[in-house]
Amino acid sequence: MTAALAALGLAAALVLGGLTATPVLVLAVLLAQGLFVAGWFPALRAPGAAGGRVVVAATAVGADAAVLAADDTRPLEHVAAVLALALLAALLHQLVRRDGRVELTSSLTATGSAAVLVGLGSAWLALDVSRDGTGLLVLAAVAAAAPPTLDLAARAAKAPPWAGVLAAVVVTGLAAAAVAGAASVTLAVALAAGAAGAVAARLAVVLADRARAPHPLLGAALPALLVAPAVYLLGRVLVG
After folding, report:
1. Is-contact 75 29, C-beta < 8 A?
2. Residue 30 has what pLDDT?
3. Average pLDDT of the chain?
4. pLDDT digits (tens, 9 = 90+) for 174-183
5. Structural domain containing residue 187
6. 134 contact partners, CB below 8 Å, separation of at least 6
7. What's CA 48's distance to the chain center, in Å?
């Protein structure tokens, strides 16, 4: 239930940010990134979590700032540089650990991969500045919330595993049709972007469920971080 509520809350915050002002969207993205950081290290049971959280949180802020400072035609151009610095910081974090550096590889992998994921989450801000970005942002938010929410609903109803997947496909498809009707995005583009987002969100749910100690916040936040770059990429390729 916690994961479902968190997923719905994140989706609502992102939609509100997309429909109102950039500062609201920034706060919503930071919320998604923060929930992910809170759930990632406990789920992986990785050592050195305190320092890892600092590295990942700084990466999230840096990636978001890089997108906001970039030209609207190439909003993600500086995110790669931020991620490169984050990976160096992850290595430095291991050097300054004073716990014997137990499970060094696991700790480094957890911190580095988390930094990459929060950096990808900054694509929400890039969606907002792309052409027809508001419609795609709303669609991405629906695609991010549908799999974790409907999976939990299917489990609660003791339905077959595929029931939640099918329900998520139907909900995302209806959202794509609504976006195509309300915005200048064509139905084909909306369906393609919705499908990419739904697949990314479903993959995130599977990954979150396979963690050492699955955490409800991870199940809600990881789909949001993976959906944004998938929908952004499809939007730039198909819309421009």
Report:
1. no
2. 95
3. 86
4. 888 888 777 6
5. 2-238
6. 18, 19, 128, 183
7. 23
Give the pLDDT confidence of 84-133 residue by residue, as tens digits. Answer: 999 999 999 999 888 877 888 889 999 999 999 999 999 999 886 655 56
Torsion of CA 55, 59, 62, 63, to 10 degrees: 180
CA 218/CA 206 separation, integer angstroms: 11
Which of these, 56, 66, 184, lies nearest to 115 by C-alpha position? Answer: 56
User: What's the rounded mean pLDDT across residues 35-49?
Assistant: 91
Contact 182, 209 (CB under 8 A): no
Read off the tokens for 2.
Answer: 């916690």
For the residues 58-86, what does the mean pLDDT come to? 92
pTM value is 0.89
Residue with tokens 């939640």: 164
How far apart CA 220 and CA 150 sit, in angstroms, is 12
Report the C-alpha gap between 58 and 111 in whole angstroms: 12
Sequence-distant (6+) residues with CB within 8 A of 217 are 2, 3, 6, 35, 36, 38, 39
Looking from the CA of 118 toward its CB, the CA atoms found within 13 Å total 37
User: Scanning the structure block, which residue is given the tokens 């479902």?
Assistant: 4
Report whether pLDDT(1) > 70.
no
